What does this fold into?
Amino acid sequence: MLWEKKPPIADRQMPSPTPPNTQTPEPVMASRVKSFEEKPMAESAKPSVVIPNDPERTHLGRSLIVKGDLSGSEDLVIAGQFEGTVNVQGHCLTIGPEGKVKAEIQADRVVIYGSVHGNIIVKERLEIHKSGHVVGDLIAPGISIEDGAYFKGKIEILREGMHEPDRPLPPQTLKQTPKQATALSSSTAS
It folds into this structure.
């Protein structure tokens, strides 16, 4: 053991710097490096919501601040700030994660990732995602509010076949039966 004679250094096998079960560390590292090169590091800084850049959609960019009445006949994405009214009936309105809207909205479909203050009337579906913040009344046949989203207001679900929300009729337009008329006149007489 201690007194054993060791072979000369030239004849000795030097321990391998890599474990014996890894034969070629180069290709493994190269493939890992390649996968990092394909995915830029800036991806983690981007918002988790990605709205597709569709040429059929009009975009109000993040740096825009717009006030007024907005109407159109194409899908719309608001990523900046807007104040006024939005009317894109027959199309979809999307409020991006950084979008801030103070408006009365009418559209076929509304998808909210950002902030909306105002009433919303939708013909098909309204979606408020986790990052969404909505203060106002909602009127739609279908409403989806994801866990974690903020909503404050009233909701009116439209039934199939209804095109306008129910509004109470003025008392003079109600049709009265003779019994109801008699009951009304006798109660007002006493």
